[in-house]
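Contributing: when you submit paired examples, paste them exactly as shown. First protein:
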Amino acid sequence: MRIDLHIHTDASDGQWSAAEVIHGAARGGLDVIAIADHDTTRSVEEARELGRDLDVQVIPAIEVSSTSESREIHVLGYFVDPDAPSLRDHESRACRLREDRMREMVARLVASGVDVTFEQVLEQAGGASSTVGRPHLARALVDQGYASSIPDAFNAHIGDHRPAFVPTGMMSPEEAVELVLAAGGIPMWAHPPGDLVDQLLPGMIRAGLGGMEVYRPTTRRNDILRLEGICRTSGLLMSGGSDWHTPLSGQALGDFFVTADEVEGLLAAGGL
């Protein structure tokens, strides 16, 4: 069984619609996926319906944004109720904060001599200010010639601690964990930064953290082994996924996957 538990659509900062993602997942031979958009579950139901037709099982999920000491900390919520009132309230608040944040990041870029506009970023987001995120800004920077690629845009301008970075400021990691629990989901720390695991993990566990995202295409083997060990010692579940956003990354859906054995605890906890 081929599984990818971290995929984005254009409901947040992914490039493809839910339908395009499901077709891409089917072409890539994926059996189970999770649609995990930033701070919204709007694509989940469409993806689930089409997934039934194409034999791609879709786990309802979300990636909740939080901040700790100006660092972005994301919490994946698996098997959530997509229509939970707590998630709908969070989505509305996140939309407002996301636009404010992007305007501030653009202002910082302009002040540093980078000629980019909010409207150009908005165009990359399909005109929807409610979904605008850093990948959209990165694409605008590439289009305007200020970066050679999306990774270059992050490394030079908009990654954490880069000159134009502005944290979301939505909530603490513990509050993100509690939000997922309130929606009936299993909270998992997404792409946990190695230098913050020891510092933040105890508080997140006390809040109800269920596990961590261990398996990713960019995670080094030594880091995977470390995270596996922490999860086993702490009784945490393990997840894995591509964090796929766009075909422009050079990675097709299905190029990266995890097996049922690697994430069996999470699947069992969700009733699969």
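Second protein:
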Amino acid sequence: MKIKSFLLSIVLMCSISLSSVAQQASVKRVILFIIDGISIEAPSKLNMPTFNELIKKGTYIPESYVIVPHHPTVGSYSEYNTCSFPNPLIQQGTLFLSPKNKMVQELFPKEQTALVVNAIDYRSLSRGFSTAIQDVTMSDADVVNVSIRILQDQHPVFMRIHLQAPGTRGFEISQSTPDKPYFRNIFGKDSPYVKAIENADKLLGKFVFFLKKENLFDSTVLIITGDHGENKTGWHSLYNKECWRTPLLFVGANIAQGREFSYFEQTDIAPTIAGLLGKDGPNHDGASGKYVKEILKSQDVSNYHPQMYLKRLDEQIRDFNFLRAELITSGKQDDSFINVAALLENGNFGEPFYSQDRILDWYKAGTVQHLLEVNQKVLDRVKSIMAEKKAGM
């Protein structure tokens, strides 16, 4: 009897193992479909029938958090990166960004991978893609058409498709003049941003139709998101909370249908792509993300308890910059505030604050938990000093 029970256990274990392997094997490709600067309000405010229909068939995060979408063009970051913070973070899957880090496409050196985007700002992300097309003369429609041809001819295992027009139109609105009906309002009358987002949804529909027509959809995981959100007045400043959040949708092979999470972190995208394709994440350090298996229909969502690191870090960086600005402006009436600002800038409150200007030094914190602890200590100390000074005025 004991032998029979033992053999039965072995059979069950093998069945579970084979089932797991079969599940992984059924995902033949992952496609990251980025709609640049898509606002968290876009799916509900705009005409996006394709995206909204796919929400019902996948796992949806209405407000996924991204790192502050800062885009330095001077300093050490700009020496290695040609795009805003969220983009290398998506590919590297860690807050400890480094040119030495591996990117998710580099996990597949013997297979076809592809990047297609109608901009040249993503040059620093192209390393490791077997095909990388970055052509500013292409329209969003061209990007989708080229992507379809690549899928037909090269059969990539991973692909990043990036529609740039919405982000570009958002920037144009931020620079528009009062005579425009969409002045300081991406959802205003005749808004070019609205037109670009709604066109992106039509192109998404065309792309999904192709996947289904070619019998590729059921073996594909399609991830639809923005690299960052969009300010209502246009563009993406690091201080605006709307820019820290963007919709995120997983749909396709083995993905749970009708599931919704209230929180997700951009650091988890790369390791989740890797995990879906049977690989470990590209980087393993004190700030790397994880494979979020709870997007799978086979997984229990009760196990999903995100730490909300990005939300806290974004808020700390915003507070730091506003606090620094307040110190400087207060210095007009009292020079001692300027001294506090200088101490803050020079890192004289213990371990220096890990701000956006030090992003390539964030790894020195060791872990994201320690980074957040240091930042909070600095903020609390400076706020306390300011309160004392104001009370004495």
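If you have annotations for the second protein, write them as plain sentences, like these:
The longest strand covers residues 58-65.
The CA atoms of residues 110 and 130 lie 9 Å apart.
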